[in-house]
Specification:
Layout lengths: L1 E6 L9 H15 L3 E9 L15 E7 L5 H10 L4 H4 L4 H13 L4 E5 L6 H8 L6 E4 L4 H11 L3 H21 L5 E4 L2 H9 L5 E4 L18 E8 L5 H21 L4 E5 L5 H9 L3 E3 L5 H6 L1 E6 L9 H9 L3 E3 L16 E2 L3 H13 L1 H18 L2 H23 L1
Parallel strand pairs: 1-2, 1-4, 2-3, 4-5, 5-6, 6-7, 8-9, 8-11, 9-10, 11-12, 12-13
Helix pairs in contact: 1-15, 4-5, 6-7, 9-13, 12-14
Length: about 400
């Protein structure tokens, strides 16, 4: 199958969930024998040499773009546009021209648009390309829900208002654009249900993010240090910053009351200086850059995921599951992952519940081992990228057959 795969950024380095999901989807579809022709925006913030992708795709072409958040641009958007600013930053007419020219010059079986932020390029395809192939959108998140959750926890009234404003615009954008696609890929059951609640009546498929089992297998040479906890995530994403600040200020003091020697280690690329300073001031060990996420997770006694906002699926949970490391998460953090409280994970939503769950694992090695063992079994069964690529292929074939039947 020839697939035109459209990305909002070059998904490198593999330091955040979105990049990991996009990169491995391309890699394992290509490994399964499909032709993957990638068109990508190459953002100033995440700029990469496109040639790095040629090991995992058939071809790649890119357009440079600046997506940095700018106060003046946001103000103009507020007054003169009805589009959500967080998505408007990814609009570039020259990229629309490249997409349409590629589809006019070459034959493809399906077009995959990766991320809701670039969903509106479907308009250019529908308007300019005679009889385009089926077009599928992978959402990664229901974006308006992230803004609603951030607004609910925002203490600054002005910022809370703006988050709610963004949420309304983003919901209108998603509601308008989802029906323009032949199919939607949902990353969690919760988001698949939301698509229906928003009025989408077309084809949906539940296709989670996965884990590269070969890279995230237990390394017997790495021993977890007793009494240590860890968190890892991209520190340029507001829900991750919020999670870290809440944990170190609200949960860690409760943990230290009963376990004064317990250590919290926090890692993440692009960590702002103020986040690092905040964590260190509250007794956490901050690691702005670690060479290996797998080694970092496995060297600690447990992974914590104290997310209060956000959406989609936390890849670090699935990676820790594959590594055989016990996990404690909020319910929002564990959305979309096939785990059960007390069997393969501990779930906690308040500071007191989180501190109690940490104490349980620190006091009970048998519980920690059982959670880790059960979670690894689930990861091997449900979340290999080979299986996920197969599910994606099945959806492409489904929409291709439906398009053929509609024509004939």
């Amino acid at each position: 199958m020839r697939i035109l795969y459209i990305l909002n950024r070059i998904p490198l380095p593999l330091t955040d969930g979105g990049a990991i999901c996009s990169y491995n989807s391309v890699k394992f579809l290509h490994a399964a024998g499909h032709e993957l022709h990638v068109l990508a925006l190459n953002t100033k913030k995440h700029y990469q040499d496109p040639a790095q992708m040629l090991d995992v795709c058939t071809s790649i072409d890119t357009i440079d773009i600046v997506t940095d958040v700018r106060a003046l641009d946001a103000a103009r958007n507020l007054v003169f546009s009805r589009r959500p600013y967080i998505a408007e930053r990814f609009h570039k007419e020259i990229f629309a021209n490249l997409i349409c020219a590629t589809l006019q010059d070459e034959k493809f079986d399906v077009v995959h648009i990766d991320h809701t932020m670039i969903a509106w390029y479907v308009d250019a395809i529908r308007a300019r390309v005679p009889k385009p192939p089926p077009i599928v959108l992978r959402t990664h998140n229901i974006e308006h829900v992230i803004q609603e959750r951030l607004a609910a926890h925002e203490r600054n009234p002005a910022k809370s208002w703006y988050r709610r404003f963004l949420a309304r615009r983003m919901k209108a954008y998603e509601t308008a654009y989802f029906p323009k696609f032949d199919a939607l890929m949902a990353i969690t059951p919760e988001e698949q249900a939301m698509m229906r609640q928003m009025g989408y009546s077309g084809t949906t498929a539940l296709i989670p993010a996965g884990v590269d089992i070969a890279k995230f297998s237990p390394n017997p040479s790495i021993q977890a240090r007793a009494g240590t906890m860890c968190y890892i995530g991209g520190m340029d994403w507001q829900p991750n910053i919020e999670a870290v600040q809440w944990f170190v200020s609200e949960v860690l003091p409760l943990v230290h009351r009963t376990h004064p020697s317990a250590e919290m280690h926090i890692a993440g690329k692009r960590m702002p200086a103020e986040v690092r300073a905040f964590g260190e001031a509250h007794g956490a060990f901050m690691h702005p850059d670690v060479p290996s996420a797998a080694d970092f997770i496995q060297s600690h006694a447990m992974l914590l995921v104290p997310l209060l906002s956000g959406g989609g699926m936390r890849l670090k949970i699935v990676e820790a599951m594959s590594l055989g490391v016990p996990i404690i998460s909020t319910r929002i953090g564990a959305e979309g992952v096939a785990v059960r409280h007390g069997e393969s994970i501990l779930l906690a939503d308040t500071a007191e519940e989180f501190a109690h769950a940490i104490s349980e694992l620190l006091h009970s090695p048998n519980l920690a081992q059982a959670l880790a063992r059960n979670a690894r079994d689930i990861a091997l069964r449900e979340y290999s990228w080979e299986n996920i690529a197969q599910k994606m292929s099945m959806l492409y074939e489904q929409v291709q057959k439906a398009a053929g039947a509609a024509e004939g």
